[in-house]
């Protein structure tokens, strides 16, 4: 468990905690939060040939991993993830039989729901030399014949298979002949300058921390199946009909959706160049940290484009609401690209199916029972293309850097899509309205804990960070100041591995404001806001901080002549202690004062927010 060691500075009787960030030395990570001139990271280039037998539900594959050691250290062994072992009887998840996590009113089951499976490894080798390896649940240590020197590379060959579960820890699985396949191949754990090997086991909560590289993947499936995947299709002439290729070409220059496979065509022989035997789909991708795919024989396929990016939706003909999903997807990619950082990949594809919501590079799995829910889930999963697919943080340790920052940007995107409706005009305040039900003293946990230690992951990883960063943007810094620093963070750490401290430093550097107090209160501990009107005395209003959180204050004043005024006081008002006296202009008399007139802060006691002379 991560613990915060804090330096304490007592000023005027009010407690301020200064975050003692680790030194940024050796030029790897700079003091301003950016990657330093000596920054390094590893690279993994992966080639896979795999096949699925939809009768036996068996996936078999072989891969070659080209691992490049960018570190200054020699590596005598590799740590790898074999995450399908989460379904093995001996996995931590199955042995502990933990109850599902509750996300609002939805239970999220991180088990395989009784399915008995796991990875069968038949070969781990370098060339003809078989290697010694040891499997520990969902991780594996591979001992090398000789260490990989700094700057050196090796090519590791692995052959494996596993039975595809119906529900694989809520992140992949199958429904009839529709397959959504992810976390399906052995992959190397991250080795970084902060912790060395990051080999936290896959238990369910906490999804990714992976190295960047390229993928060259060949998938052999029944000829009647369509496939959607990470990467660019290399052999469309082999696996698509001439009509589909022509429609895709039109979609590449069309903002309006093009039906590549219509409702009437879905599942018919006309959608496939062959209906017997198998076909091999060949995909390539670069600058990605993962690869996933989906396949099924009876799917509709819509496509459109924005700024040269192909937007695609695959869904079963009976799926409700999905006629609009292509417009939702296009809006999402455009909105996030314009607002934060341009989407860097050639396509953005979402697949409707049994997995309620999951993200992989260029590909998401989505479901939703209502229009608003479908849009949020689709936007949220595509938002993960920015966090953590582009900005490669470690969600197994710091979920707020992934789920939290993503949920934060989602609230603005959903408000934009539904602008002018009651839902769109209020959706941004939803995390605030959830505060009282989740931020319970003695029960609430800090956002900074790893996900496997959090009892209310819905709150600490998703909703509380959205509230926190909306307040930082809209109330503390202002949109222009926040956005400039936040965009700089995304650009600096695109396709790299930032830590929380890097984020803290870059937001301080880019905004020009000391924010240790904010990180401490919102991320490292569970502080609570209770600001009160202590007294109204003619030309003065005394404000008291009765909680352990400091935030700016908005004050609504009523004067003796009946006029009203709203005043915003910056957080520096608390520099000298928990009491602040606001002095109005000479000659004016205040008769009443009220705090937070817009109701944007999570003040835990509203009864003391107003006062009269």
Write structural notes for this entry.
The chain has 613 residues and is an alpha+beta fold. Helix 4 (325-339) packs across helix 7 (403-417). Mean pLDDT is 94; it is low at 1-15.
> How is the biggest beta sheet arranged?
8 strands, mixed
Largest sheet: spatial strand order? 9-8-12-4-3-19-23-21
Number of strands: 36
Give the amount of beta strand, in percent.
25-35%
The end-to-end distance, rounded to whole angstroms, is: 50 Å
CATH topology of the largest domain: Immunoglobulin-like
Helix fraction, binned, reads 10-25%
Average pLDDT for all residues: 94
The parts where pLDDT drops under 50 for at least 5 residues are 1-15
CATH C-level label of the largest domain: Mainly Beta
Number of helices: 14
Give me the CATH architecture of the largest domain, please: Sandwich
User: What count of structural domains?
Assistant: 4
Q: Helix- and strand-based class?
A: alpha+beta
Summarize the structure.
With 613 residues, this protein is of the alpha+beta class. The chain folds into four domains: 7-31 and 422-524, Orthogonal Bundle (Neutral Protease, domain 2); 40-206, Immunoglobulin-like, CATH 2.60.40; 234-277 and 298-391, Neutral Protease, domain 2, CATH 1.10.390; 531-612, Immunoglobulin-like (Sandwich).
Please supply descriptive tags for the structure shown above.
Neutral Protease, domain 2; 33% strand; disordered N terminus; alpha+beta
Secondary structure elements and pairings:
Elements: E1 7-11, E2 14-18, E3 43-53, E4 58-68, E5 75-81, H1 92-96, E6 101-103, E7 106-108, E8 120-126, E9 129-130, E10 132-136, E11 139-148, E12 153-163, E13 167-168, E14 172-175, E15 178-181, E16 187-188, E17 190-192, E18 196-198, E19 213-222, E20 226-229, E21 232-233, H2 236-239, H3 242-251, E22 258-261, E23 278-288, E24 293-296, E25 300-306, E26 309-315, H4 325-339, E27 347-352, E28 357-360, E29 363-366, H5 371-383, H6 385-390, H7 403-417, H8 422-426, H9 430-433, H10 435-438, H11 457-477, H12 479-493, H13 500-511, H14 516-524, E30 531-537, E31 540-545, E32 553-559, E33 564-569, E34 579-583, E35 590-595, E36 610-612
Parallel strand pairs: 3-19, 26-27, 27-29
Antiparallel strand pairs: 1-2, 3-4, 4-12, 5-11, 5-16, 6-7, 8-9, 8-12, 10-11, 13-14, 14-15, 15-24, 17-18, 19-23, 20-24, 21-23, 22-25, 25-26, 28-29, 30-31, 31-34, 32-33, 32-35, 35-36
Helix pairs in contact: 4-5, 4-7, 5-7, 7-11, 11-12, 12-13
């Amino acid at each position: 468990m991560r613990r915060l060691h804090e330096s304490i500075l007592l000023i005027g009787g009010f407690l301020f905690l200064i975050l003692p960030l680790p030194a940024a030395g050796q030029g790897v990570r700079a003091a301003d939060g950016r990657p330093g001139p000596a920054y390094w990271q590893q690279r993994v280039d992966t080639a896979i040939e795999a096949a699925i037998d939809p009768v036996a539900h068996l996936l078999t594959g072989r891969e070659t991993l080209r691992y490049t050691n960018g570190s200054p250290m020699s590596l005598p062994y590799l740590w790898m993830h074999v995450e399908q072992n989460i379904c093995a009887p001996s996995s931590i998840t199955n042995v502990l039989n933990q109850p599902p996590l509750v996300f609002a009113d939805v239970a999220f089951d991180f088990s395989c729901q009784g399915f008995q499976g796991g990875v069968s490894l038949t070969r781990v080798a370098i060339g003809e030399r078989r290697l010694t390896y040891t499997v520990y649940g969902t991780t594996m240590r591979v001992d090398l014949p000789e260490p990989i020197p700094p700057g050196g590379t090796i090519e590791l060959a692995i052959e494996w298979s596993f039975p595809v579960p119906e529900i694989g820890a809520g992140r992949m699985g199958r429904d009839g002949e529709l397959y959504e396949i992810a976390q399906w191949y052995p992959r190397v754990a991250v080795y970084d300058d902060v912790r060395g090997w990051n080999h936290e086991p896959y238990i369910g909560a906490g999804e990714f921390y992976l190295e960047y590289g390229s993928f060259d993947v060949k998938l052999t499936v029944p000829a009647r199946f369509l496939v959607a995947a990470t990467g660019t299709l290399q052999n469309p002439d082999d696996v698509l009909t001439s009509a589909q290729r022509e429609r895709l070409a039109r979609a590449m220059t069309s903002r309006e959706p093009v039906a590549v496979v219509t409702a009437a065509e879905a599942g018919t022989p006309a959608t496939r160049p062959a209906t017997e035997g198998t076909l091999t789909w060949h995909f390539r991708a670069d600058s990605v940290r993962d690869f996933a795919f989906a396949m099924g024989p009876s799917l509709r396929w819509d496509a459109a484009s924005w700024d040269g990016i192909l937007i695609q939706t695959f869904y079963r003909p009976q799926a409700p609401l999905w006629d609009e999903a292509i417009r939702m997807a296009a809006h999402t990619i455009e909105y996030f690209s314009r607002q934060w950082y341009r989407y860097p990949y050639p396509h953005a594809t979402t697949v409707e199916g049994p997995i309620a919501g999951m993200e992989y590079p260029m590909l998401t799995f989505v479901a939703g029972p209502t229009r608003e829910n479908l849009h949020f889930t689709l936007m949220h999963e595509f938002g993960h293309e920015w966090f953590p697919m582009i900005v490669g943080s470690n969600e197994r340790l710091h979920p707020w850097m992934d789920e939290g920052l993503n949920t934060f940007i989602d609230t603005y995107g959903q408000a934009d899509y539904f602008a002018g409706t009651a839902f769109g005009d209020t959706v941004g305040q939803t995390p605030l309205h959830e505060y009282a039900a989740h931020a319970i003293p003695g029960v609430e946990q800090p956002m900074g804990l790893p996900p496997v230690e959090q009892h209310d992951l819905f709150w600490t990883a998703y909703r509380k960070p959205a509230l926190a960063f909306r307040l930082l943007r809209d109330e503390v810094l202002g949109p222009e100041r926040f956005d400039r620093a936040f965009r700089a963070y995304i650009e600096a750490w695109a396709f790299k591995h930032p830590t929380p401290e890097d984020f803290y430093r870059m937001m301080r550097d880019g905004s020009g404001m000391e924010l240790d107090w904010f990180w401490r209160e919102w991320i490292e501990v569970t502080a609570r806001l209770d600001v009160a009107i202590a007294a109204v005395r003619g030309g003065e209003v005394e404000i008291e901080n009765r909680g352990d959180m400091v935030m700016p204050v908005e004050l609504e004043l009523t004067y003796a002549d009946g006029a009203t005024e709203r005043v915003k006081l910056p957080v520096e008002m608390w520099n000298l202690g928990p009491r602040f006296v606001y002095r109005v202009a000479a000659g004016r008399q205040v008769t009443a004062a009220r705090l937070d007139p817009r109701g944007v802060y999570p003040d835990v006691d509203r009864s003391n927010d107003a006062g009269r002379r």
